[in-house]
Design a protein that fits this description.
By secondary structure, the protein is of the alpha/beta class. 45% of the residues lie in helices and 12% in strands.
């Protein structure tokens, strides 16, 4: 009986160093982010990370536990053969999760979660972000790590499995079951009231060190377990209090009199509308909204002819969530994406649906795979009657990893606008793609690959606008240039910082009455209400979208990152991490509690709404 207990103990303990080795490898791989980390930091990451390593080890010991329990009554050598297969499979799974996690963290800024499965619906596009060299390194890491796990268990652990029968089967069964009960403790995460969660391993003000301590297999499992009961998540306040707090956030900031007319930006009530969603355009690369000089000369030039919103913030960090924020006026979720649930996303209001009721015809253009992240069904359910994607371009035009580059798609957009029926108002939406990783574009003006790709798309925008001005349709057209999300540039930015979410929004076209600069703090989601209000159309169904130009507009911005949120208003900025249940940023500290409470109310209201759809 002792041999059986020893074997189970060996399996559980054997996993720990094999999981712990992930931490220093992860930090060394992302050495630029770990710059300045001391040996003590490495040790703290490993020791704090052991909490979740124990949980994962507990899960991985369940099958060997069942083998031991069965062997009390049915001994034999076949268990060793079965366990070889089991440790081979688990070794491959653990290694694959770690290798994918290491590769994606540099792009996503958070440890692996259920987003992975969302993007694997189109694996070709998912891999398009990963350079070939990176893929080779990751595949080599996967093979070495998987083989090391299997070899360790085959050589040192499996031989410990006892093949001899026991004499006191009933007593031995009770002892094994008792040990199984003890095994539940690390699986649960301890004996306190809280269960295992990612925040258990957080220990530092440095978010990268906290992320390094997370076990990616646990992060993935925990994320999968949080995907359904949305209304039960983020219950910061009792319902009655939440309702009062949210109502206070959304009611007019003052009592505008009848003399306070809303600013009219447009010369017509029914202009043609073109929304251009610029992939990964951060305000930090655009001079006219406070970014670096020399990157986007065309946007800088064109902004003087239109309406420039200087304090616009993206609501998320991914395209699928940014699309919903812009086109549906619906806040992005920090733990999931509503686009993943067609039954829910099709219930959302949309700019296209609202305009469709006024006789507009809506079409969508994207040079990549329209099936990526469920986009095709999303666009159709949002009111678009025609979708153009990579499949509609010749193979010779799809030389980018993502599909047709922006020079190709802007040319297509120009030709399609030229051919439109002038008697019918239209809404066209165009999602660019050239400024997406890995930033491979037919343009070589800047050393930084990201900035070079932004400059390339900027040149395409400038050329397109200049040509469109020559067409009669220009005089009755509104063009909205807005980013789908920001980008971590410069690289020193942390993924939760406000500058990571600061984006441009510029309105152009012959339908613009006069150039203007609007410095109001605003959300990406506010485009829907603001645009519809300018057209004198109702927008009450857009729960989370507010008219920026309304005299009673409460000025603030709200954004989400991986299980966290940021709230910005005139008093400052506060950022909150839901994993560790603590603020990450409070500038200034005075008033931060009030800002955080406002952010919590918005997040709770969002998830209540999501759960009820």
């Amino acid at each position: 009986m002792k041999k059986r207990l020893l074997f189970l103990l060996a399996v559980f303990i054997g996993w720990l160093p094999l999981l712990a080795i992930q931490k220093p490898v992860f930090m060394l791989y992302h050495h630029a982010l770990a710059n300045g980390a001391s040996l003590t930091d490495y040790l703290k990451v490993i020791t704090h990370g052991l909490l979740l390593d124990c949980t994962v080890s507990g899960y991985l010991t369940v099958i060997p536990f069942l083998c031991i329990l069965t062997s009390v009554w049915l001994p034999g050598v076949f268990y060793k053969k079965f366990l070889k297969g089991y440790f081979l499979v688990t070794g491959l799974l653990v290694a694959a999760i770690f290798a994918v996690d290491v590769a994606l963290y540099g792009y996503w800024g958070f440890r692996l979660d259920a987003t992975l499965f969302f993007y694997l619906q189109s694996p070709g596009d998912a891999m398009a972000s990963v350079p070939v060299g990176t893929f080779i390194w990751q595949f080599a890491l996967f093979l070495i790590y998987a083989y090391g796990i299997f070899l360790a268990f085959k050589k040192f652990i499996i031989p410990l499995f006892p093949v001899t029968p026991v004499h006191k089967r009933l007593g031995s069964t009770l002892i094994v079951l008792l040990l199984g009960g003890l095994l539940f403790i690390p699986i649960r995460g301890g004996v306190t009231t809280s269960t295992a969660n990612v925040g258990m391993v957080y220990f530092s003000k440095n978010q990268f060190l906290n992320h390094s301590a997370i076990n990616p297999a646990f992060s993935l499992l925990a994320s999968l377990s949080k995907q359904q009961d949305f209304a039960a998540q983020f219950n910061f306040f009792p319902e009655e209090e939440r309702e009062k707090r949210y109502e206070a956030l959304t009611r007019p900031a003052n009592n505008p009199t009848n003399d306070q007319e809303k600013v009219k930006l447009l010369t017509a009530n029914r202009p043609n509308i073109l929304i251009i969603l610029m992939e990964s355009f951060t305000a930090n690369a655009i001079e006219v909204v406070g970014g670096e000089a020399g990157i986007t000369p065309n946007l800088n030039r064109l902004s003087k002819e239109g309406i420039t919103f200087t304090n616009m913030y993206a609501n998320s960090f991914r395209t699928d969530r940014g699309l919903v924020s812009v086109l549906n006026g619906y806040l992005a979720q920090p733990t999931t994406s509503i686009m993943k649930y067609p039954a829910k996303s099709q219930t959302l209001p949309s700019i296209a649906k609202s305009l469709g009721e006024q006789g507009y015809v809506a079409d969508m253009l994207y040079g990549g795979d329209i099936n990526f992240t469920n986009m095709q069904s999303y666009f159709f359910s949002s009111g678009y009657s025609k979708i153009t994607a990579d499949r509609d371009f010749p193979l010779t035009s799809r030389l980018s990893k993502w599909g047709a580059n922006d020079d190709i798609t802007f040319t297509h957009l120009y030709e399609s606008i030229k051919d439109k029926d002038e008697r019918t108002p239209w809404l066209s939406t165009f999602l660019t793609l050239s400024s997406h990783e890995p930033f491979e574009v037919p343009y070589h003006h800047l050393d930084n690959p990201y900035l070079n790709s932004v400059a390339f798309t900027d040149s395409c925008i400038g050329s397109f606008i200049d040509k469109l001005k020559e067409l009669p349709v220009w005089n009755n057209t509104l063009i909205v240039l807005v980013a789908d999300h920001g980008f971590r540039y410069p690289a020193s930015l942390k993924d939760y910082e406000p500058r990571r979410f600061h984006i441009p929004m510029i309105w152009l076209g012959g339908a613009i009455k006069n150039p203007a600069i609007i410095d109001t703090y605003a959300n990406q989601t506010d485009l829907a209400a603001t645009l519809l209000s300018q057209l004198d159309l109702p927008h009450d169904q857009f729960t989370f979208s507010r008219d920026i130009l309304d005299p009673g507009y409460q000025e603030y911005s709200f954004y989400t990152f991986s299980n966290g949120f940021g709230f910005i208003d005139s008093t400052g900025v506060s950022v909150y991490d839901n994993e560790s249940n603590r603020p990450l940023l409070e500038e200034p500290a005075a008033g931060s509690d009030e800002r955080l409470d406002k952010g919590k109310v918005i997040l709770q209201t969002l998830y209540d709404d999501l759960g009820n759809r």
